[in-house]
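ok so I'm stuck.
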Amino acid sequence: MRIAFYAPLKPPDHPVPSGDRQMARSLMAALRRGGHRVELASELRAYLPDARDEARFLALQTAAQAERARLAALWRENGVPDVWFCYHPYCKSPDMIGPELAREFALPWVSAEASLSARRDHGIWRRSQALVADALAQAAVNFTLTRRDAEGLRGMLPDLRLAALPAFLDLDDLPPPAPSPNGQLVTVAMMRSGDKMESYRALSAALRLLPAGTGWQLDVAGDGPMRAEVRALFPAGKVRWHGQLSAQEVRALFAKASIYVWPGQGEAYGLAYLEAQAAGLPVVAWATAGVPEVVSDGETGLLAPEGDLAGLAAGIARLLSDRGLRRRMGEAARMRVMDRHGIAAAALILNSELQRIAR
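replied:
not stuck anymore, here's the structure
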């Protein structure tokens, strides 16, 4: 099938790394693995961070109209794709291009990782979320990456056609696990305001609660506008700051570590959790948002209740002090990722649904 792919929040070739960018790239790779021809339909970034920014909303509408006209002319000349595939539409990043084109050219519109939120229903987000809801209702299928997302969508639009697609990684060139026996901690996260900054604050506070004499060291991969504020949270000499790393460099960092630590406030699921577990590392985090979807408490890691700093610290201390437990959980973590979160399994799910809706 010929698939027009669009990621309104962040194009797959955006220069700033993030989980959104990685998942967009992974979805394109999984679709291609299924034998489909995937074309990036548009690089228009539809991002509405402020519910009060009427001017930005109107400018986006104008830009989207121009993109629709461009694509319509292109399709009339070169042929119409078989499917429009939209990744991660939500109130701050609606698809203002695909739904109208899908209606005009009678092609299926498909989403992955869409979300709706009643608490965001104000200002311009009310209108953008209405656009998302209308698109989801007309969708041939909506792929959900977590049970939490599926429940949220069904709670607002009970009749949606949903298909479960667990978050996934390309595991083809995965190196053998080589977790360090020395109890080294590691985390990978952007340094920006909001949930990321709050997770850094929580991690710093939890580390300060570790028993006296606990010999911990933390490697941090990540960068961003809050770099100075993040670094100021942690004691000098206890953290090695690596800045922004490539995927290969992150894997090398994991190979020198023993435990992946990240509270995970607001995480949709957190691809870094999967990457760390694929490297054979157990996880310490909060049982919050989508984290339990990718970390099994007591099996592949230790999850404390959301906001529980003492519980987070206790999980870190327990794994630091028990090398055997680290090894068992790390082995279980890698096996779970290999069994449930590989690109081959994702390609099969995507292909099955797309064949069902093929014109």
